[in-house]
Every structure is written in C-alpha cells, then in structure tokens.
Amino acid sequence: MVQRSWWKQPSKQPFTWESSHAAVEPSNQSATFSRRTLAVVGGAIAALQLLPDGVLGAVDAGQRRDSPASLQDSAGNHVQAVASAHQLATDAGIEILEAGGTAADAAVAVATVLSVVEPWFSSALGGDTWGLYYDAVAQEVTSLDGVGPTGSLASIEDYEPRAEMPGAHQAIVPGAWDGWMRWLDRYGRLDLGVVLAPAIRTARVGFPASHHLVFWLMEHEEAVLGLPAAAAIYAPEGAMVEIDEIVFQTAMANTFESLSTAYAMTDSDSRSDRIQAA
User: Fold this and answer.
1) Core-most of 72, 114, 198, 235, by most CB within 10 Å?
2) In this structure, what DSSP letter does residue 149 have?
3) CA-to-CA distance for 62 and 211, rounded, in angstroms?
4) Which whole number is the average pLDDT over 124-147?
5) Taking Cα atoms as reference points, which of 134, 189, 169 lies closest to residue 10?
6) Could you report how far apart the first and last alpha carbons of the chain are, in Å?
7) Position 23 pLDDT exceeds 80
8) How many H helices and E strands in the chain?
9) Interacting residues of 189 by C-beta distance below 8 A, sequence separation 6+
C-alpha cells in the first residue's frame, strides 16, 4: 500500500517561484471557486488560479524579483498563471484553467505532460510526487507526499554494496499516480479524462525533442540503446533523436487512456469512487 502523508501549516507569507516557461492570462471568471489557490507539484511545476492582490508572480529563469509581481491586468481583472519547465506543459495548465479547472487540476495536467516530455527528470508516472497546495482564504498550506514504499525485505546491508549500480534494487513502488488522484479527489473539479487530455495528445501526436532531452539522451546513450523499449522511442531509426525531431510516446498515451477509461466506466455517481477506480 502506498505510504502518504498530509501535513498542514498556516502561512501568512506570499509565494514566489522561478521558471523557464511562464504564462499569465487575464480571466473574467467568477472567483467563487478555487479563489486564491496555489498548487505546486514535484518542485518544477506550479499552477495558480484567480489569485488576486498580486500575491504571487511568475518569473522567468534568471530574473529574480525581490517582491511578488502583480497578477492583475490594467482593468483590474484577476488572472491565471501557470509555470513549468516546458512550454507544452505550461500550455496544458492554461488549457485546464480555461476549462474551469482548479489549480490542482492544472498542476496535475502539467505534471502528466512533463512525464511525457521530460523522461530524464519528470517521469513521475512511474515514480513519486510531492505537492504543496496553498489556500490564501484559510491561510493554509497542505503538503502531499506521494511516495511509495521499498520492498519489505530490503535492507541497508543488501543495498549499500550495490548503491551505484542500476537495477531493480534502486526502485520503490511508484506513488505518484496515487498522490495525484488524492490531490484531485480533495481539490480537483474536472473529470479525469479532461485533465489527462493534454498529456494523451502530446504523447500520441508527438512533440519536438528539446535541447535538454537530447543532451540527457546522449549522456545515457549506451543505456538507452541497450533497452529495446526505450530505443524504439528515442532511437527509432537506430540513432538517437536530434533536436526538434518528433518523439512519440504511444505506450504512455495508452496508459493514460486506460486510466481515464477506468475512471469513466466506473458505475458510480461519486467522483471519489471514479478516482479510486483509476
């Protein structure tokens, strides 16, 4: 069973973050839902919805600011903001907010797209996740640890001699998916299929290989080429993909679609039951 913990601590301090990709758009949506909420998943992902009074600013990498930026436009409207490590993930977060999702819905959408486009770092679908959710009305921070356990027979004595070696002994039971589902159950609003749609689309239609992706693939070229499933994705013609070459993650798209189908096919009117099924 996946081990998780929820931790809450009142906070009166504004949040700031930095990102290489940030988007801020005006919104005339009613602030009666998810107002002044911030969701941050996995450290590199942040989503904000209807956060007035300039509580949080989205900052480009390398441009630190001593005070949070205003998130109101010249007309005084509230705005929506999403920041992530990849443009496609940022776009996914904005798409979910525009569909009426909460900050948590958007953050999970960003996380799943990053699982597709950042396999060297953000492949959280098969790993763990951590999250922070800030509610400015309650002045409360909720922290999620979606971390799975190690094998019941694992021991330090067995692990230490193999600490630098790759293999199954390096793995734990993945906890990210369960963490995301708990996140959506507590703070989300949209159906799972809507939240996963950007990741499914990105994985199936394909995406251009970024400089970072190509760099990390070349760093681990021998290992990637030695794994047939990985080589089929990242070296389909026998050589590693190059910058801007289209990469397809068909198996991951199928996985997300199966999880979405499990949610949709559950014979229950309870959103919590459908999320549990997924």
Assistant:
1) 114
2) P
3) 18
4) 82
5) 134
6) 15
7) no
8) 10, 11
9) 33, 34, 100, 101, 102, 105
Mean pLDDT of the 100-112 span: 91
Which is more confident, 68 or 171? 171
The answer on pLDDT for 145 being more than 50 is yes
| Model confidence, pTM | 0.74
Separation of alpha carbons 52 and 38, rounded Å: 11
The average pLDDT across 127-140 equals: 82
Specify which residues 133 forms β-bridges with.
39, 142
Rounded Cα distance, 85 and 66, in Å: 22
DSSP secondary structure code for residue 85 in this structure: S
Q: Would you state the torsion angle of the CA atoms of residues 260, 266, 270, 274, taken in this order, to the nearest 10 degrees?
A: -30
- The answer to whether the beta carbons of residues 49 and 102 sit under 8 Å apart is yes
| Strands of the chain, DSSP E | 3-10, 17-19, 21-26, 37-41, 45-49, 58-60, 79-84, 129-135, 140-147, 207-208, 246-247
Sequence-distant (≥ 6) Cβ neighbours of residue 124 within 8 angstroms = 42, 111, 114, 115, 176
Instruction: Name the pLDDT band for 175 (thresholds 50, 70, 90).
Output: confident
- Say how many C-beta atoms besides its own lie within 10 A of residue 223's C-beta: 12
For residues 250 and 203, the answer to whether their CB atoms sit within 8 Å is yes
Cα–Cα distance for residue pair 252/257, rounded to 1 Å: 9
